[in-house]
Design a protein that fits this description.
mainly beta
Length: 271
């Protein structure tokens, strides 16, 4: 007989890609972080929300890790059971003036409006040349073209920030747009290429700079998302083929960190 288990979880969507800059015309906005949904008592979800409820699991459930978006592309959704965390919004650039909507919104290019975040998952991207939104704050909150910071979780036994937005791109004379804490990539400019979001954090990619010596500077890719599941160590947990993961023991619990899935139809059987 299968044993029902109380499951704690952290599900983060793939980060959005930064927008591309175009020489002497505009700078690219930072990519928004992937949506951040947390089911760990006492912690926070994204968008200023408290943690969601844990649930009793006994059966087979879908598990999908969303990929980070390429330059000027949204990230992909991450899924565990009925929990879906939206991919981050793309940064504004050559494809579009405004930042894209997503788990957290992408920052816009010059003169545009940042994309919106998803309720209880993340915040909006910055306006003008904007940093990407993060799980805990909007783009530009910590300064011009900075990415919004993510949220810290101790589900794996130590506190780790994830879900930071990407910094916006900049022209030659301006400082680089810093990525938000939690995997957000730094924006490009000053003869420096933008930085990708950190894998398995859902961090947004940095926006490309509109430098005078570049015809175009592509935005950086967003970081992939992650699905983390924590259950009592005595409970059976079996993943289908095509799942890449690591495991750890924390007290009397086992923690499974899913870093990639080969398709959107992989599963985990609990209990």
């Amino acid at each position: 007989m299968a044993t029902a288990a109380n499951v704690q979880y952290l599900v983060i969507g793939g980060g959005g890609g930064g927008g591309s800059g175009l020489s002497r015309q505009y700078d690219g906005g930072g990519g928004g972080a992937g949506g951040y949904r947390c089911g760990v008592p006492g912690e926070d979800s994204g968008g200023g929300a408290s943690a969601e409820s844990t649930f009793l699991a006994s059966g087979t459930y879908t598990v999908t890790v969303g990929a980070g978006g390429a330059s000027q592309s949204a990230g992909s959704d991450s899924v565990f059971h009925t929990i879906t965390s939206d991919g981050g919004g793309r940064g504004g650039g050559q494809v579009a003036l405004n930042g894209g909507d997503g788990g957290s919104g992408g920052g816009s290019r010059n003169g545009g409006t940042g994309g919106s975040g998803t309720a209880n998952q993340g915040f909006a991207g910055g306006n003008g040349v904007g940093g990407g939104g993060g799980a805990s704050e909007a783009g530009d909150t910590d300064g011009y073209i900075s990415g919004g910071d993510g949220v810290a979780s101790s589900i794996t036994g130590s506190s780790v920030f994830r879900g930071g937005g990407g910094g916006g791109g900049t022209a030659n004379a301006a400082p680089l747009g810093t990525g938000g804490e939690g995997g957000g990539g730094t924006g490009g400019g000053n003869n420096t290429n933008p930085i990708n979001g950190t894998p398995n954090t859902g961090g947004g990619g940095g926006g490309g700079g509109g430098e005078t010596n570049y015809e175009s500077q592509a935005g950086a890719a967003g970081g992939s998302g992650v699905v983390i599941i924590r259950v009592p160590a005595s409970v059976s947990v079996v993943f289908s083929d095509g799942v890449s993961l690591s495991t750890a023991t924390v007290g009397s619990d086992k923690v499974y960190t899913v870093t990639a899935t080969s398709t959107a139809s992989e599963t985990v059987t609990i209990g």
